[in-house]
Amino acid sequence: MDKDSNIVITGAAGFIGSCLVSFLNTEGYNKLILVDDFSQTDKDVNLKGKKFLKKIERELFFEWLQKEQPKIEFVYHIGARTDTTEFDYSIHEHLNVAYSQKMWRYCCENNIPLVYASSAATYGAGELGYNDDESIIEKLKPLNPYGISKNEFDKWALRPAQDDKLRRAQDDKLRQVQDDSLPESKSPPAWAGLKFFNVYGPNEYHKARMASVIFHSYNQIIKNGFVKLFKSHKPEFNDGEQLRDFIYVKDVLKICFWFLKCWQKDHKLFISGIYNVGTGKARSFNDLVKATFSAMDLKPDIRYIDMPEDIRNTYQYYTQAEMQKIKAAGYTEKMFSLEEGVDDYIRNYLSKNQYY
């Protein structure tokens, strides 16, 4: 596999997907097949100036694959419905479960490595911690339909060979035809599910309510001179001291690219499995907002408001990725601290209205 190989990126017009397109371009990879719902024109600017081979509508992609029979060398399945306030599970089930199963099966049948986006939302309230030990995935209790859908696919991906009859039944339902010609392999030649924690950075301008707290804080400061944060509704947490593992998108991109480089260098270096993608260090929203003010060369002014009722019962008060697994697999690059990431994001992107 070389830089002229075809690489698929789903969710390519979105936040992480479009950043990944740019990152791969800088590494010399331009034969990229981009998949997304391109009717959402508010994301068009995310791909401006980027190099790629073809754009294909998400719902036409598998039909296109069957017709064109392209040679695909690697797949990044980043696309998903990520709105945690969308409670219609059928939407999540279609995009985050069924579509991902079809992508998995395609990679399996065509011997293509697959990296897909999972989520830290699968951990729910964190009753079992934030350990990416695959033995606990069946026991996780996500708090919203988005997290449930991501965990359902993780469970399906890990299903052992003896459960393949159930997988076959699900696949038949997806194809709407009976097909007994399943490949011998039950998995792609290499695969990784990446449990993204709280990712922030450029190209999230279109995400509205679901954009990062940094994005919203920056805009609140520009407009009002202060930032509103949610009060705590748990006595063990002070206002603004809810904790998250915030990871800068540039670190996410390096991890995604590392799997590709492992595969290229030696297939055995790509150790399949589900991995946390965070920094391993939880930080408070107060810390995050103070870093935002600092990057704008302003003194902090934080005010606290009640948390909306529609998210109060499903709100995570603490997340922190355990990162030993991916380090043991060979990833050792230093990550941005919260202050470093926020400073780069604001000074080089938000304040200049720049895209990555």
TrEMBL record:
Associated pathway: Nucleotide-sugar biosynthesis; ADP-L-glycero-beta-D-manno-heptose biosynthesis; ADP-L-glycero-beta-D-manno-heptose from D-glycero-beta-D-manno-heptose 7-phosphate: step 4/4
The record's free-text note on cofactor binding: Binds 1 NADP(+) per subunit.
NAD-dependent epimerase/dehydratase domain span: 7-163, 193-278
GO BP field: ADP-L-glycero-beta-D-manno-heptose biosynthetic process; carbohydrate metabolic process
Enzyme class: isomerase
Names of the cofactor(s): NADP(+)
Active site: 146, 207
InterPro entries from the UniProt entry: Epimerase_deHydtase (IPR001509), Heptose_epim (IPR011912), NAD(P)-bd_dom_sf (IPR036291)
SUPFAM superfamilies given in the database record: NAD(P)-binding Rossmann-fold domains
Cross-referenced PROSITE patterns: PROKAR_LIPOPROTEIN
UniProt key word Protein biosynthesis: no
Annotated EC: 5.1.3.20
Entry comment, domain topic: Contains a large N-terminal NADP-binding domain, and a smaller C-terminal substrate-binding domain.
Family membership noted in the UniProt record: Belongs to the NAD(P)-dependent epimerase/dehydratase family. HldD subfamily.
Name of protein: ADP-L-glycero-D-manno-heptose-6-epimerase
Origin species: Ginsengibacter hankyongi
